[in-house]
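Lab notebook: predicted structure, single chain.

Context: the supervisor wants predicted structures on file for every construct in the current expression panel, including those that have not yet been purified. This is the next one on the list. No modifications to the sequence; it matches the entry in the shared construct table.
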Amino acid sequence: MFRRRPFAVLAGILLVGNATLFATAGDFGALAVPAAVLASGPVFLAWYRPVAAWAVMAVAGPLITGAGTALAGPMTPVPWYVNLQFAQVPVMYVLALSATRRVTAIAGVVTIAAGAATVLLLDVAGPVTVLTGVGSWTLVLLAAVLVGDARRARRLDTLRAAEEVGRTRILEERARIARELHDVVAHHMSVIAVRTASAPYRVEGGVSEPAAREFAAVNAAARASLRDMRLLLGALRGTDGPVRTAPQPGLSDLHELVESVRRAGVPVRFSVTGEPSLSPVESLTVYRITQEALSNVVRHAPAADTTVQVLADADGVAVRVDNVAPASTAAAVEARGPDGRAGPGLGLIGMRERVAALGGELIAGATEEGGYTVRARLPKGDDA
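Prediction complete. Output recorded below exactly as produced.
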């Protein structure tokens, strides 16, 4: 969350300054350096352990005051001296930025109360001096806490907004996938409805009355399912989305997809191994995964050598899209799909949702050579 160097530099400056001040004005002698470490160390510790840094800071003030009193030097440091506040302010700021308001409030009260009680018990200063010093000290620490808390609140708001946008994008992607799957399933239900309605007339010699009633019942069920799916699709699409009538693409359309990517300037090698026997949903999923992967190549690695493989076996089908590192650091082109239109989904989000819906596995990430790989495995579906 924070860079280490500013904390290290500030702690080093405070260490030298406090050591010099304690040695000269406070007459700490050999204790000047340990006292300076105790006073300045919390600044560096706050970089990665804010609560621990505050604990050390809260103890450092009373200890240094007690040491100054015991040494009876010309100056006895009190916790609200400016040289000590230079360390206290960044620690309290980081604590307010990292911890809850309750923890920060308790830390501030404990720090001030411990410092004031030490000065009064050791009779280092009179009540008026203590009251004035504690008042100014409280205002300085309060300002640091308020600034840190305000930044923490903004950061939390940003994180919540980002999470909400992420959830919305995932829901939108799932709805889009559901619409595509609806088109595929609706086609098959339409075929069932048509075939069951025409079966009594297509069967040579006719069918018996019980068989005709059975065909009619299946036809009615298929039509009811179509109606229900249309209602579901309307709920998913809402009122703003256009109705799409084009058929969904599949495995047979991959050649055209690869050619469009080649025309965009990306050298692509495409191969199909085995004899894929895919359902329409699986075929659509293979197409969309390949399309999203190639779109990413066009956007982020233009002109990079790319390989697309579809591997089918008895257990299912695998899709692999690998590209090497781009030859140059040319600016990525506009985020559009291989066919020139806006990409169909949300990249890895869409791929993962599609693969998960079919019980498959997806691996995507950078390679050691600087390229990128997308590997999806879809298990063989149950035809029962």
